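step=encode ok
step=design start
structure_in=
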């Protein structure tokens, strides 16, 4: 009886502690200047997302080094707001120009642009804002309610388990490498190679410094992100040869009230799409691009009039945009819990964690629980801001899509160089930024996966360090990787994922 009472009291205390952390996070997010950073991030994200070919990752990576003076939770809230706003902003040119501002908004063009051609652009834009807001709110609420269970789950992971999760993350390269598997593995290996420069975490020996003292500290991960995303994107944008982001006249017509009526007529599509977005977002390597098309396909499959999809039906916009925003909350779960980003934006958020001295894993659900709660609360509240801004900005969408390229590119490059230098006040980071910019542009041009490169750069050192620690704990015995049910399960999953391409090939040949 005594032990039962103790367990009940412990559970009650934990619940009270978690509720206290949640309400504290709400008060922090609503305080000044945190709420100001949240709104600024959302506006910047919407602006960048509405510029075809630019996207939120550019804004996130340029702002990343500038967040160094900020508190960790403020920096993460700002970057997450840019991410969230950018995903919504990508729907604006998708609807009015038939040019998705971001890759995840591609499915929005299927019915969004036909609605514009039918004179219902305002209705489509309103549907996008409302659906994005509702999808984001549902996703953030689900994750917040799951945090107590995530705490118990993540705390089960020991050093061998973290090593196996890192290996599983590296094997995700076989998933994120769309197209050629060889190209994906090449990109991932290149990312791992760059992180070996400097002092080894095992024997503390210098590697690949070639006698240069400035390379002893290694190559900065944040500078790499700036090069891969900001510089590479600006090179690609300039290579397109356009003077403006878009040169098509935009005419916004329709009624917002009609959009609201259509939204409440399709609660099932709304709910299913939010769940699809949240679930797929939590799968490393999937992301919002996948969830968008899956949600759209499911809406089409379950529709009473599937033949009308692609001609301007509201369900198409609702499904794609709801899942789009819902992905954000789900994608942060593996990033915070295991350090495995499922997208470029999540990789940048992971870089922010590292920059501010935090380590993904159990600490994010124990000592740093307040930061985790504040992040998801900001997503929850940020979607209401998206709704308000999205509806108010509809008459001005033309401005967002006609930015002068020749003015925008130098601004991003200057901020990127300044940010890279400010990291360590080391010119090596500038050279690294430039090199990775050229490499990133070349990778995108020839369809090499940048996310595979990032996975290699992030998870390579984690796998190396935890492998060494695991073998130290076990006195060199590899049996430590099957020493518990969780570890044995992760080992089995690792082998399954590793041999999955071979199994799939063998099955297809047999058939």
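sequence_out=
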């Amino acid at each position: 009886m005594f032990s039962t009472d103790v367990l009940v009291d412990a559970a009650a205390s934990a619940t009270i502690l978690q509720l206290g952390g949640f309400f504290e996070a709400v008060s922090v997010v609503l305080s000044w200047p945190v709420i100001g950073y949240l709104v600024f991030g959302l506006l910047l994200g919407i602006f960048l997302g509405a510029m075809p070919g630019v996207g939120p990752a550019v804004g996130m990576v340029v702002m990343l080094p500038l967040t160094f003076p900020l508190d960790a939770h403020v920096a993460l809230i700002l970057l997450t707001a840019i991410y969230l706003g950018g995903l919504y902003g990508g729907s604006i040119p998708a609807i009015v120009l038939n040019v998705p501002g971001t890759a995840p908004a591609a499915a929005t063009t299927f019915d969004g642009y036909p609605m514009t051609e039918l004179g219902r652009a305002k209705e489509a834009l309103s549907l996008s804002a409302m659906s994005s807001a509702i999808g984001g709110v549902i996703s953030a609420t689900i994750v917040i309610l799951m945090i107590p269970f995530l705490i118990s789950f993540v705390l089960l992971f020991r050093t061998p388990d973290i090593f196996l999760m890192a290996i599983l993350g590296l094997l995700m390269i076989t998933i994120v490498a769309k197209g050629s598997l060889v190209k994906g593995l090449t990109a991932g290996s290149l990312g791992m190679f760059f992180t070996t420069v400097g002092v080894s975490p095992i024997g503390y020996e210098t590697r690949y410094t070639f006698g240069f003292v400035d390379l002893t500290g290694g190559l900065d991960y944040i500078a790499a992100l700036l090069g891969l995303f900001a510089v590479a994107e600006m090179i690609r944008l300039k290579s397109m040869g356009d003077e403006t982001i878009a040169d098509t006249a935009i005419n916004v017509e329709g009624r917002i009230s009609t959009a609201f009526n259509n939204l409440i007529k399709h609660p099932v599509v709304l709910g299913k799409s939010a769940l699809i977005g949240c679930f797929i977002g939590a799968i490393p390597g999937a992301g919002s691009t996948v969830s968008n098309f899956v949600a759209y396909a499911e809406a089409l499959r379950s529709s009473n009039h599937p033949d009308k999809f692609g001609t301007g039906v509201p369900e198409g916009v609702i499904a794609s945009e709801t899942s789009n925003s819902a992905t954000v909350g789900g994608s942060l779960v593996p990033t915070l819990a295991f350090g495995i980003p499922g997208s470029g934006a999540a990789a940048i958020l992971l870089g922010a964690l590292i920059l501010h001295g935090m380590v993904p894993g159990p600490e994010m659900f124990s000592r740093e629980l307040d930061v985790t709660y504040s992040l998801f609360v900001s997503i929850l509240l940020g979607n209401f801001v998206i709704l308000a801004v999205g509806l108010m900005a509809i008459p001005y969408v033309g401005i967002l899509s006609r930015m002068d390229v020749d003015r925008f590119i130098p601004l991003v490059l200057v901020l990127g160089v300044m940010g890279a230098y400010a990291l360590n006040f080391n010119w090596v980071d500038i050279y690294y930024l430039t090199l990775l910019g050229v490499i990133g542009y070349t990778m995108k041009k020839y369809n090499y996966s940048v996310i595979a490169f990032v996975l290699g750069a992030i998870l390579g050192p984690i796998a190396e360090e935890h492998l060494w620690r695991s073998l130290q704990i076990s006195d060199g015995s590899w049996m430590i990787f099957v020493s518990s049910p969780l570890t044995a399960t992760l080992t089995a999953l690792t082998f399954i994922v590793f041999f999955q391409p071979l199994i799939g090939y063998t099955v297809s040949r047999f058939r």
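step=design ok
step=annotate ok -> The chain is about 70% helix and 0% strand.
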